[in-house]
Design a protein that fits this description.
Layout lengths: L6 H5 L14 H13 L10 E6 L2 H10 L5 H4 L2 E8 L1 H9 L9 H24 L3 E4 L2 H4 L1 H7 L6 E10 L27 H20 L5 H7 L5 H5 L7 H17 L7
Antiparallel strand pairs: 1-2, 2-4, 3-4
Helix pairs in contact: 2-6
Bound molecules: flavin mononucleotide (FMN).
């Protein structure tokens, strides 16, 4: 087997949040998607995912609202919503008089893994061709409204989205924690407080400065919310508020039921 050096591609990864309006050739999109499907592992090779492409400017404007008005949804010519999708498989099973399945929580989990694995392959395949991507976590915040907007049927659930386009910025690489933060040898060994201090030391400076630099009024907003550290920012009303996250969690559980991933036995 020939080896391919993926390092330059991985090292060049940046989430891109500013895009040119240059359209992406439909043939290039088809090529990326079909190669990515072929190049992604999938549980049982059932390929329990689907993608909805949003290119139409008016429909992107509506998605822009659903994605909490993140400008890149308006700028980038393509938004791909990745769905955990057992509907097509279940339809096939039914047509062949096989037993119904995959309309349960396990089915959802496996389909969600399939969809997310595919999304990252698609991200790399676009990046390898010089395009930029950014994931849209707001897919989960607005999953119910997005499912309705995209007319997703039973046992199809939006798990993540990518905006894709030609970059109009060249941001610096974002930091990661040292490798030892993520890797455990043979057994899991919780970090001591001193290790957490050391692991987060650099990020607590770079992250704080980054968020502080996001707008002229950020210092005032931090003060208003009594935010004194990066950690406090992350669970404040300005970022991942536990109250908002709790509400979204309830909505996601309800949507799992509404979309029919609720079979018990
Ligand atoms: C599941 C997921 C959801 C994300 N959602 C958003 C988002 O809604 N808006 C945004 O600007 N970036 C979003 N991102 C991008 C992350 O902020 C980004 O990957 C992270 O800060 C690391 O930066 P990098 O990708 O440039 O290395 C998301 C990333 C992931 C994996």
């Amino acid at each position: 087997m020939t080896t391919i050096d993926l390092s330059p591609l991985l090292r060049a990864h940046r989430s891109i949040r500013k895009y040119k309006s240059t359209p992406i050739a439909p043939a290039l999109i088809d090529e990326v998607l079909s190669e990515s499907i072929a190049g992604s592992s999938s549980s049982g090779n059932l390929n329990t995912f689907s993608m909805v492409l949003t290119r139409d400017a008016e429909r992107r404007r509506r998605l822009f609202q659903l994605h909490l008005e993140q400008d890149m949804v308006l700028q980038a010519p393509l938004v791909i919503t990745f769905n955990a999708d057992t509907a097509r498989t279940r339809q096939w099973l039914k047509m062949r008089e096989a037993r119904d399945n995959f309309n349960n929580f396990h089915g959802f989990m496996v389909a969600a893994f399939d969809a997310v694995i595919l999304s990252q392959t698609v991200a790399l395949a676009f990046e390898a061709r010089g395009l930029g991507i950014c994931y849209m976590g707001t897919t989960l915040n607005q999953a119910s409204a997005i499912a309705e907007f995209l007319q997703l049927p039973e046992t199809v659930f939006p798990v993540t989205s990518l905006v894709v386009g030609y970059p109009d910025e060249a941001p610096k690489a974002r930091d990661r924690l040292p490798l030892r933060a993520y890797v455990h040898d043979e057994i899991y060994r919780p970090h001591s407080e001193a290790e957490i201090d050391a692991l987060y030391e650099a990020r607590e400076v770079s992250g704080w400065n980054r968020y502080l630099g996001m707008g002229p009024d950020m210092a005032a907003r931090f003060a208003e919310h009594d935010i004194k550290s990066l950690a406090q920012f992350y669970t404040s009303e300005l970022k991942y508020s536990p109250i908002a996250m709790g509400k979204i969690s309830e909505q996601l559980q309800a949507l799992l039921q509404e979309q029919g991933f609720d079979r018990k036995s």
